[in-house]
Task: structure prediction
Amino acid sequence: MRLDPIKHAEFVTGRKQSALVDLWSTTGFAATLSDVTGPHVYDYGDLPVATVAITLYDVRRHVLIENGRVRRDGRVASGRFRIGQPGRTVVVDAVPDVRSGKLLLLYLGDSLLREVGAARGEARPIELMDYAWDVDDPFLSLAARRVVEASEERRPGRSLLAEQLAHTLALHLSDRYAAPRMAAPERFPNIDDDLRGRIADFVRSDPGRDITLAEMAKIVDLSPSAFLRSFKRSAGLTPHRFVVEQRVRAAQDMLAGSRLPIAEIALAAGFSSQSHLGAAFRAVVGLTPAQFRRLRRS
Result:
């Protein structure tokens, strides 16, 4: 039966899910978020794919049952994670230490794990190591919280940031917790100035719209995860930061070539408000939008 990560997460948690990132049909990756408000029995059933659960709250008692046997019974600190292995029957009985919290579930399908394997010179998908809440990974904990924050900020550009952060989480898990194998060094395709120019033209052709990693990756004929790695390595900045800079450049053109109010220019360039534009503009240009406009007209 074909997996629908969103429906699976709803079945497990007993709560309606709104996907943080749903790229299951294209890249084999999905991230879902659930509110936790009290004790609950999470019945994962037979896990169809590698499924990573990250608790963003303290758990007073956490009973992990795999294939009918208790594997772990104890506390779980906020930010810890479990890598659920495909083919195992998993049930979790959890009693939170707080009144409310967040549970992040990441679904890593064969297509994503195969892509990571190919970057390592392997012909088959990588396999993840078997961990259950016993590893302290500060980067993963912080990144998971940033994914949640970005998804909850309803303003332009946040969806791209959430997608980028979620991809980074998946790649971090794949890199750091891949089961050991003999493998060739990873290869990073170079995204040169011409290719970055094509991406910049794409962003600035309509800077006000939401832009996804998949759209940017398609321009240079890469998968989203390969694009994320290659872009950072080639350009020295993340795709999200690059998009912000291109939106600032678009705002510069409008400030110099029109008499539109700055608030309208901010929205047209993909920023949620004049203050949002102002903060990004100062970081990139070193001036406020108003100062830049005055200098260009003097």
In short: The beta strands are 18-23, 29-36, 40-46, 50-55, 59-66, 69-76, 81-84, 89-96, 101-108. The chain has a mean pLDDT of 84. The radius of gyration is 22 Å. The longest strand covers residues 29-36.
